[in-house]
Amino acid sequence: MKKHTILIAGASGVVGAAALEHFSKLPDWDVIALSRRPVALPEGAKHISVDLTDLAACQRAARELTHVTHIMFAALFELPDLVAGWRDPRQMAVNEAMLKNLLDAMEPEAKGLRHITIMQGTKAYGGHVEPAPVPAKERWPRHNHENFYWLQEDLLRARQKNAAWTFSILRPQIVFGYAVSSPMNIIGAIGAYAAILREQGLPLHFPGGGRYINGASDSRMIAQAAEFAATHEIAANETYNVVNGDSLVWQDIWGSIADRFGMQKGKDVPMCMAKVMPTHEAIWERIVKKHDLKANTLAQLISSSWEFTDRALGYGVENPADSVLSTLKLRQHGFANCYDTEDSLHDWLELMQKNRLIPR
């Protein structure tokens, strides 16, 4: 019998999918994926379909999950207007309710629950409200803005006082990973953008704004950090930035993306992807047929990731503020893994090409 059983909520997303792969490879872990949509399961993993906004559905599922020892909560609700939704009370309320419903269902049933991991992000430092000081550190007081992060965190802290379990909070930056229809999958958006420009005979123009220093988080490293947090006492009730460890300036790696698609690196041609790219469904349909890709429409593949990509690339901003997260706390506590951000980007583009989601 294995030592641990982890329930990964939000297993169809970029972070959840990586966690599903990672924990399934560990010898002492049983893995249960929870999501509304079906997911591709690694060998040995199980899946349950649950809508986390439905408390009764969560309670029914929990009766079969009494053996769960760990929860990784990577589920996320986003409104169609992604960036505006980050400050919308409806979005905050739904994300709080999803975690609350799962806790309400699981706590009476999973008596051996030992640890819960939840996800936050750079919005914790208020970078979407005003420039954040560099580097952003976990020990800072909360940035004074409304955010579902604080609602979920307060819920955990209140429950944890009378519980046997501990929790950890992970804060990645721009997440590189693999998912279809994710609202924040920049890898898919860049790959589809390159393919559409190439089909039109164009070079790979840079569609964003001014240069700025940023960072990224490989979803594999987020999964590794989740394992660390779940199995080390030092991580109990702690918050960690989880970033690859190097820096990212998009313009400086743009040429390597052009090389991957056999294209010339283009000029800086600012373009609002969220407005322009959805108009290219006909071109995408032609690409799918020409390259024998899986039959996703552009909307199905990318969802609202165009809007997220606009923001990540600094579209419409002449001098974007640098966004740098300190990685010291996690490393000082004993986690030493890191990823080369450019290599990470190409790893995930390669996987999307291998799985016939974007063309080579």
From TrEMBL:
Give the SUPFAM superfamilies listed for this entry.
Answer: NAD(P)-binding Rossmann-fold domains
Q: Where on the tree of life does the source sit, at the highest rank?
A: Bacteria
Q: Which Pfam families match?
A: PRISE (PF22917)
Show where the PRISE-like Rossmann-fold domain sits.
8-296
Coiled-coil-forming residues are none
Q: Output this protein's name.
A: SDR family oxidoreductase
Its source organism is Sheuella amnicola
Q: Taxonomically, what lineage is the organism?
A: Bacteria, Pseudomonadati, Pseudomonadota, Betaproteobacteria, Burkholderiales
